Amino acid sequence: MTTTGEEHTAAGTGPWWWVRWRSAVLDAGLALASAAECGGEGVRFAHDAGLPVPIGVVFGVIAGSVLLVRRKWPIAVVLVSIAITPAQMGFLMGLVGLYTLAASELPRRITAALAAMSFAGMLIVTFVRTHQGVMSGDVTMGDWFVPFASITTAIGMTAPPVLLGLYMGARRRLMESLRERADSLERELQLLAERAEERAEWARSEERTRIAREMHDVVAHRVSLMVVHAAALQAIARKDPEKAVKNAALVGDMGRQALTELREMLGVLRSGNGADGRVSAASSSAALSSTSSSSSSSSSSSSGAAVAAVPLAAVGVAAAVAASRAADGSGVGAVSGAGAGGVVEGPCLAELDELVGQSAAAGMVVALSVEGDVRAYAREIEQTAYRVVQEALTNVHKHAAGAKTYVRLAHRMSEIAMQVENECPPEVGAGSSVRLPSGGNGLLGMKERVAALGGVFVSGPTDAGGFRVSAVIPA
Fold first, then answer.
1. Cβ neighbours of residue 117 under 8 Å, at least 6 residues apart?
2. I need a labelling partner for 260 at 20 to 30 A (CA). Which of 124, 125, 281, 365 fits?
3. C-alpha–C-alpha distance, residues 402 and 224, integer Å
4. Average pLDDT in the 63-86 region?
5. Class of domain 348-475 (CATH, top level)
6. What is the side-by-side order of every strand in the sheet holding 415-422?
7. Dihedral sign computed on CA atoms, order 304, 307, 310, 316
8. Contact at 8 Å (CB) between 155 and 116?
9. Residues with Cβ within 8 Å of residue 142, at least 6 apart in sequence
10. Above 60 in pLDDT, residue 343?
């Protein structure tokens, strides 16, 4: 990951105020060179000032060594170089000090003021020294040479380091800005990647939930009716063989319907899985076909247990295959890409009469009433309304066998409402003795379906001892 300038500085491993050891070594070398220069120039300064030579050398070495702190106190370095300019020493320190000052983060007005002071000091000292040389005869030039040499020297000792320092400071700030921008972009990309992964995981979870809900709706209702018919078949197999044959045929028809719906779901789940998917599809289809044919041949048998066992086994095989594929997520992508809604097209409201008729054929006393003008709705709305009624009837079969049930469907201006209400079930022993298992997910699945479409779902017991399921879906 890229680092910003502050992070880069904080991560330094150099001594004291240096970020890196390389910078410390460079400053130490420059300070040593400046000390040597000022020490050598201190000899001439001592002769001119009438001081002992060792004093002039020590003064020069101390003054030149100030360059060691140029990164921490650049203003002090420039002021010292300006102060020793009259002694004609500290030229290296002046150049490096002005460069460091211009490249630092100090206000530009401070840099301009100190650069002007350095320029003025160099101009005055050079003018005086050059004029003394002309007057003493050491320099045989015209009067124009003194101001020309003074200005040229002052500009040469001031402008280049200041301009170079300004350029390097701007370049460093630009690089730090680019580092910060790259760091920010990298964090944004990581955040987007995490969000995309979360959305993908959420989509996979939603798809698994939807597949599980469809499997539950298909299996629970069909199998509940099959178990009820099988129990009735066992009760009347010897007393009324003709009715037993009819019940066996109903069991076979329901088993084939369940297998057909499951086969369609599994076909969508298996699509796009490559060779392995086609092999498993072929084997699963063969198993489903064999069990379907077995249930068909068993429908004419007078043994209720045998009739019920084959379709239940077939449904169990299909459900196991679908559950295993939905659990490992192998069919999520295929389901999402199938059709407009991503799932095999389910039932519609036109099939509601057939649904109620199947429950009536299983011995339930059920009445269907429709209010309002019948009209077409979106596929998702019709399928959800159908599944709510289907699951409510399934719960009546499971928990209130023999209870009279009322199914109401109302077509309104901007919504569709449905209600399934059953009366108090008869006393234990008065109705069917079949006990159907419950997974506890029926009401939760109905609520999730209705809420996904922006509707309202309410369920609960009635004052009369029955149970009511109501749902309103915006149209």
1. 82
2. 365
3. 14
4. 92
5. alpha beta
6. 366-371, 405-411, 415-422, 467-474, 456-461
7. negative
8. no
9. none
10. no
Cα 339 versus chain centre, distance: 27
The pLDDT assigned to 181 comes to: 94
Give SS3 for 211: helix
Per-range mean pLDDT, top range of 218-232, 239-253, 297-311: 239-253
Helix H or strand E encompassing 366:
strand 366-371
Rg of the chain, C-alpha, whole Å: 47
Residue that has been written with the tokens 């401070």 in this structure: 110
Spatial distance between the Cα atoms of 28 and 32, rounded to a whole number of angstroms = 6
What single DSSP character describes residue 16? T
Q: Provide the Cα torsion 17, 23, 28, 34; round to 10°.
A: -110
Residue 373: CB atoms within 10 Å? 7
* Residue spans per domain, the chain: 5-143, 201-345, 348-475
Find, among 452, 346, 364, the residue nearest to 406 by Cα: 364
What's the pLDDT at 345? 62
Chain centre distance of CA 211: 24
The residue ranking higher by pLDDT, 464 or 207, is: 464
Amino acid at 114: L
3-state secondary structure of 82: helix
Quickly count helices (H) and strands (E) in the chain: 14, 5
Contact 183, 2 (CB under 8 A): yes
> Beta-carbon neighbour count of residue 351 at 10 Å?
13
Chain mean position to CA 305: 53
Q: What angle do CA 457, 460, 461 make, to 5 degrees?
A: 155
Tokens 């979106």 belong to residue: 378
The mean-pLDDT minimum among 72-81, 90-99, 152-161, 263-272 falls in 263-272
